[in-house]
Amino acid sequence: MRLPAIGFVLAILLVGLAQRSSADTSDAVTATLDNGLRVVIVRDALAPVVTTEMSYLVGSVDEPDGAPGLAHAQEHMMFRDSNGLTGDQIAIISSAMGGKINGDTQQTVTQFIFTVPSEDVDVALHVEAMRMRGALDPDDQWNSERGAIEQEVAMRRSSALYRARAEALAKVFEGTPYAHDALGTASSFENINGLSLRTFYSLWYAPNNAILVITGDVDPATTLAQVHQLFDSVPKVSLPRHGDFRLSPLVASTVTEPSDLPFSMAFVAYRLPGVEDKDYAAGQILGEALASPRAEYAQLEPHGKALTASFIYEPLPKASLGVAFAAIGPNGDLKATADTLQSLGDTYARDGVPAELVDTAKRHEVLAAQSARSSIPGLAQAWSQALAVEGRNSPDEDAMALQAVSVADVDRVAKQYLNRTSAVVAKLQRSQYAEPMQGQEGGGLSESFSRNPGARVVIPSWAQKVLSSLTPAVSSIDPHDERLPNGVRLIVQRESSGPMVYVVGQVKTNESLEAPTGKEGVSLLLDEMFAYGTTSMDELAFLKALDDASATLDSGGNFSMRVPATTFDQGMALLADSLEHPALPDRAFQRLHSELISVFGPYLQRRGLNGQQILMQHLYPSGDAMQRVPTMQSLAGISGADVRNYYRKAFRPDETTIVVVGDIAPETARASVDKWFGGWRADGPRPRVDAPPVPPNKGFRGLYYSNSLQDQVLEEETIGLTRSSPDYYSMQVGNQVFGRVSFTARLFQDLRVDRGLVYYVDGEPVYNGSRATYRLRYACDPSNLAASEEVVRHDIELMQTTLVGQQELREAKALLEREIPLAEASEEDIAAALTARAIDGVALDEPKQAAQRYLRVTPEDIRAAFAKWLSADRMVELVKAPR
User: Fold this and answer.
1) What's the CA angle centered on 431, arms 430 and 434, to 5 degrees?
2) What are the φ/ψ torsions at residue 171 (nearest 5 degrees)?
3) 866, 798 Cβ separation under 8 angstroms
4) pLDDT above 50 for 9
5) Terminal CA-to-CA distance of the chain, rounded, Å?
6) How far apart are CA 308 and CA 7, in angstroms?
7) Could you please report the per-residue DSSP string of 45-62?
8) For residue 583, which of 629, 620, 537, 519 has the smallest C-alpha distance?
9) How many CA atoms lie within 13 A of 286 on its CB side?
10) What DSSP string runs through 438-476?
11) Is the pLDDT at 447 greater than 80, yes or no?
12) Which residues are paired to 259 by β-bridges?
């Protein structure tokens, strides 16, 4: 059961898990500089974009005793001052290049990633060269960054799922550096200072301990010459030995963690072969096979034994981690669920893995390898993973090893490692949910602060081009767009970077406007039921047909599919069957209906309103359709017939958009779509899918409680903008200055960089037809809440009363212009963006229009737009606080 909350939880679970794929290495240029820096350059002309990924071969396993999180802290400080380059300069340069910059700390590597327009690759390389020459790690900057990183720790540890995983790691890898992840703890950061950071940097951050991967639309010879020019003079150092790693025998144990999630979860963790082990490839295929929707773990769901279940594989150099998991209702039997997971492991260990699942897993792995070129950042990650994490010479070595795996190899690994006598069981037991949200008076500390938005930072000469001349960005998107006679809209963008075709689309519906009164929540049940086969194939037969086509499909109102171009027609036949002829069986409805009530019922039964109800109540006028949110009474009153009736009313070809991106001709795509979707007919009047405009809301502040460690804050208000409003582009540019996630945004600077009050903050307009809201999110310790609220209010008022400085304006425009090609660096991203434009009713070539409009926005336009549309007094603020 793919409930929204479970999807969120699994997203958290997967944070930090290494992604592995491969790539064609035939045109890779490799070199090793005299100072030891290894360089790989791979050309991929998908878009005028380049990704640079610098991997230092140091991570949490190399931290000194008593200093967990030191590697993570140094990763953060690499975005502060270095020799000849300040943190402010890094922020402005990276933002002006499009803001696609990131860092990541793992057990054995620390990685720094830029994705930039091709014309700026030399600037990205300059930044990496300057940072390699010496991070300054001053105490005053660490004191500010420590506040932010401690907020990150609190955010992660607010998740019961994260805490359970951390305890399981400690058990599975007890006595080794893997016993803790790379995050660190708040107490450990208190013991870190500038000296310890500088010492750690000097030991490990050197060219002879680094691998630089460059992928994208570059000339390899020219780019290699730039690398020589910038990095040749960086001296190598005498590297220390990595720490000893001795795995002790694993003893079975159990970890129990209370949770305020709306369901309970059981996990069974196993050690699997590490990257350095001869059985690593067999372990990878075992993990992929056990994660199959047709494997026994996933089949716990349709058999009514779990809300969702599967297997996750996390590769690590010395020993990998495999985790079987299952989510169950809040009153379910966790012990029995854990026993079931262990029994399935016993069965696979005893009887082996079905050959068909092994063969399918190998095909999926090979296709993933071949598909790396469909994403420029993905291609860089594939090479970095192979070289820096797996210690191979190229991704091809991994692919060859996978292809050589036999069923006997997989069965041998399963027998050796899926052993309940050495498994760690983790249980997340749902605890009683806290008090419902109650209205509270607002408040805040008075703090005197001000930013000078016109303050100038001198940009180095080698980076001045990113701000010196602002010209309209170039978008390479030129899709074929047509409608079938039955109203299906087909959009095809041909790309030739990989073997996979990406199909993304939406059937536009609106339950708030079209569900019968008293049936709120019917669309939740409908969306879950698409997973249960079609009128011609039951669930398992449908999954086998997908595997036969080497396709993956997530069906429903928002659908997506990946399928090789060679089996595109097979994939489209399955997609059409799923959307046009879903089985919607009563047996599935009865189980899903019962589970939905058991999971969300405790929230909906409680005295008072839940957070969603409060938000809708204060954003929209009395009687508005958006106030129709699911209740216990409405969920209980839904029948299987209600779900089927809603499907027949809401799912129609004339509300369906299909976007196809990949190496396929528009006429070929049209022929297949026409064949499989052309017979779909709509009955009755078209449903209402767009709500009318609403007046401005009134302000409100509410507070409710959870088991989190932080205050999680949502602030939202209605605004009268639409995508076609004259102020749309002024608001986009202004919000880049103000609130959108960016190193240079005012809220980020004020809340994180200068004060360390939060780890993240993000504000943005959210458009939905003729309606829009402005939504702001952040999280902080309770002691930081009043100060954070004051900063938000102050910065909103500053945008409304003061002209944006010319430098801030140029930075915002540069970022938005450069984002246009960066958004086209992945075929999957192209498909998603085209779908969003089609559903929003804007031109498919809107980026070309935006490139012109951004440049014409003035400071006066921004001030006027913020003064007209935003109001700190009208924010509906909901605070989810610790008990």
Assistant:
1) 125
2) -80, -45
3) no
4) no
5) 30
6) 10
7) -SSSEEEEEEEES--GGG
8) 537
9) 32
10) EE-------------TT---PPPGGGTHHHH--------
11) no
12) 430
pTM of the model: 0.91
Backbone phi, then psi, for 176, in 5-degree steps? -125, 165
Q: Do residues 807 and 452 lie in contact, with contact meaning Cβ atoms separated by under 8 Å?
A: no
CB 243 within 8 A of CB 68: no
Burial 189-220 (b: 16+ CB within 10 A, else e): beebebebbbebbebbbbbbbbbbbbbbbbeb
What pLDDT shows up at residue 455?
Answer: 58
Structural contact between residues 162 and 12, judged by C-beta atoms closer than 8 angstroms: yes
Identify which of 605, 589, 698, 687 has the alpha carbon closest to the alpha carbon of residue 646.
687
> Quick one: average pLDDT of 42-67?
93
CB atoms within 10 A of CB 417: 23
Kindly report the backbone phi and psi dihedral angles of residue 777, in degrees, each rounded to the nearest multiple of 5, phi listed first. -135, 140
Torsion angle, alpha carbons of 298, 301, 307, 312, to 10:
0
Compute, in degrees rounded to 10, the torsion defined by CA atoms 193, 194, 200, 203. -150
The C-alpha atoms of residue 402 and residue 391 are separated, in whole angstroms, by 16
Dihedral in degrees, nearest 10, Cα atoms 228, 229, 231, 234: 120
Each residue's pLDDT tens digit, 676-724? 999 999 988 999 999 999 999 999 998 887 767 788 999 999 999 999 8
DSSP 291-354: TSTTSTTGGGTTTTS-SEEEEEEE--SSEEEEEEEEEE-TTS-HHHHHHHHHHHHHHHHHH---
According to DSSP, the β-strands at 711-719 and 771-780 are antiparallel
Coil vs helix vs strand at 485: coil
> Distance between CA 121 and CA 115 in Å, rounded?
9
Task: Name the pairing type of β-strands 876-882 and 700-706.
Answer: parallel
Taking every pair of C-alpha atoms in the chain, what is the biggest distance, in angstroms?
Answer: 76
Q: Which residues contact 240 (CB under 8 A, 6 or more apart)?
A: 203, 204
The answer to whether 526 and 646 are in contact (CB under 8 A) is yes
In eight-state DSSP terms, residue 385 is I
**Cα 113 from Cα 118, distance rounded (Å):** 14
Question: What tens digit of pLDDT does each residue of 472-511 get?
Answer: 988 889 999 999 999 999 999 999 888 899 999 999 999 9
Q: How far apart are CA 292 and CA 394, in angstroms?
A: 27
DSSP 8-state code for residue 171: H
| Cα atoms in the Cβ-side hemisphere of radius 13 Å centred on 228 | 11
Opening angle at CA 377, ends 372 and 381, nearest 5: 70
User: Which CA distances in Å does 536 have to 539, 574, 581?
Assistant: 10, 11, 8
Amino acid at 725: S
Task: Collect all residues with Cβ–Cβ distance below 8 Å to 812 and sequence separation of at least 6.
Answer: 733, 734, 736, 737, 744, 804
DSSP character string of 112-123: EEEEEEGGGHHH
Distance (Å, rounded) from C-alpha 852 to C-alpha 226? Answer: 32
